[in-house]
Amino acid sequence: MSSKSKIIRIGTRDSQLALWQAKTVQSQLERLGHKTVLVPVKSTGDIVLDKPLYELGITGIFTKTLDIAMLNESIDIAVHSLKDVPTVLPKGIVQAAVIKRGNVNDTLVFKNNEEFLSARDAVIATGSLRRRAQWLNRYPTHKVENIRGNVNSRLQKLEDNEHWNGAIFAAAGIGRLNIRPENAINLHWMIPAPAQGAIMVTALEKDEEILEICQEINHEETQICTAIEREFLNRLEGGCTAPIGALAFIKNEEVNFKGILLSKDGTKKIEVAKVVPLGKHNDLAEFCANYIIGKGGKTLIDQLHRSKQETNIYSTKKLTDDQLLLFHNDVVADSNDAIKISLNRIPKTVVRNEIKNVIITSKNAVEALLHNFSAIELQFKNIYCVGRRTKRLVEKRIGKVTHTESNAKKLANYLVEYIEGTEVTYFCSDLRLDDLPNILSENNITVNEVEAYQTKFDADKVEANVDGVMFYSPSTVESYLKQNKASGIAFCIGETTAKAASQYFEDVRIAKVPTVESVIELVNEHYV
Fold first, then answer.
1. Are 301 and 236 contacting, i.e. CB atoms less than 8 angstroms apart?
2. Residue 49 φ then ψ, to 5°
3. In this structure, is the dihedral angle defined by the CA atoms of residues 185, 188, 194 and 200, taken in order, positive or negative?
4. What is the mean pLDDT of residues 301-323?
């Protein structure tokens, strides 16, 4: 099908401003001879208006519904305000074009006159954390109140609300709808949201034809500047939830950049400004973000994250940044290692001769062995393991695994049937479970236990009343309960852990496979 005969379905939110943006894209495409149709979709951001955006805890609240429509292939492209789009797009969806940018400024719309700007007491309305923080930084004695809704309804609220002196809007929004009041001034001192005033088009990564068409309406200068601003935001971990401003513009073949990070109340402010030649701007965002982080930005962001919401899920193992990103939007996870491992010294005599049968039930035991000996010194004829991850590590670093089971009890029962000879060496922790040695001893198999590592209990006292706790071994359960009461759901990595948890927790759930990611999936299912 030739691109000129395909009807391009343009997905858009159904607010007045979103439709204006979609029609702008539509007219640019139609001017180039493409056939189009608008497909309006309602979004959560438009429906839940009783809370400020940052409290909804979602970045991309306005884009999610359109993302789903696109992944379901009911639209070909989606049109967004670029500043509302999360800096990381969903898998399979890409930025296809950015339209020439409008006015980037924030605008103050005021009631009667501007005299209140020099007054000690005044009340300004905004739903944006960034505008609020910058206003309070400049006017610390003023009060800022929350306002939500589309542009028209916010202008109406300003008019109806007696004690408000003014409200802050994006100049582009009120300009595009042609409803900018007389009494409005651009706030040139306020650094806008990254990509403010820019319209972005997304499409499916696999749809080469559509991507090619969108390139025809892409405005390169806007694309360069907004990409720098959004990368700066991304590197500072901001969504709608941190007061971050960024502005890049090109003048005389140079890229000018200004960035800012503030505390919520505006009392702390870290700024950066830099000019580089066009073409040498690739690491500009990274440089500026690192500058802010180095000037105390990391502490500021950590405080923002902590103050944001109460934890509702606690993990007894420290989770990586990538793992934290896997949680459902409703989850606010906190994590720390409830157990600290210290590796023991294992005497050389233990491994002087070949050992016929060895049992390794955890990755910690592998680490302890390799901490004491080189792989060549470990002459093991048969290695028996618990868990796929332990098996993988053993095979990568020590040698072939004879047999593996998902838990210690199953392994013990297997060995009773199939072991060569009547003796095993078990590299374990000081806190091992009794199942394995007991079953083997009862069946006349001698168990030589070598304490390879020690497990120290080091759980946090969790302040919040959590919905659930994630456990990864019986000792994580024990450690957690030394500091905390058993309440909520126990999300467990496997059978053995679940058995330990079920002595204390009423609701115990077990992951499909024994991985941290699978436990996260289990948590997510609870929130769907």
1. yes
2. -110, 5
3. positive
4. 79
Contact assessment for residue 469 and residue 488, using Cβ atoms and an 8 Å cutoff: yes
* Cα dihedral 455→464→62→16 (10° resolution): -170
pLDDT band at residue 80 under the 50/70/90 scheme:
very high
Give 271: exposed, middle or buried? Use CB within 10 Å, 0-12, 13-18, 19+: middle
Q: How far is CA 335 from the centre of its chain?
A: 14
Over 70: is that where the pLDDT of 307 sits?
no
Question: How are strands ordered across the β-sheet holding 423-429?
Answer: 339-343, 446-457, 423-429, 355-360, 380-386, 403-405
Task: Give yes or no for a contact between 249 and 281, defined as CB atoms under 8 angstroms apart.
Answer: no
pTM passes above 0.85: no
Active site residues: 84
Beta strand ranges found along 299-458 (DSSP E): 313-315, 333-335, 339-343, 355-360, 380-386, 403-405, 423-429, 446-457
Per-residue pLDDT tens digits for 121-157:
999 999 899 999 999 999 999 999 999 888 889 999 9
Largest CA-CA distance found in the chain, in angstroms, rounded:
94
Q: Tell me the one-letter amino acid at 455.
A: T
Residue 439's alpha-carbon distances to 385, 409, 450, in angstroms, are: 16, 8, 18
CA distances from 128 to 54, 132, 168, 232, 503 (A): 8, 6, 9, 18, 47
- Residue owning tokens 């609701």: 507
Rounded to a whole number of angstroms, the distance between the first and last alpha carbons of the chain is 40
Confidence of residue 61 (pLDDT cuts 50, 70, 90): low
pLDDT of amino acid 44? 53
Give the 3-state secondary structure percentages of the chain, helix then strand then coil, rounded to 5. Answer: 35, 25, 40
Q: What is the pLDDT of residue 58?
A: 37
Asked which of 188-202, 206-220, 236-250 is least confident by mean pLDDT, the reply is 236-250
The H or E element that residue 306 is part of is: helix 298-308
Q: Tell which residue, 295, 281, 272, has the closest CA to residue 251.
A: 281
Q: Find the Cα–Cα–Cα–Cα dihedral 47, 50, 52, 56, rounded to 10°.
A: -60
Give tens-digit pLDDT for 423-436: 999 999 987 878 89
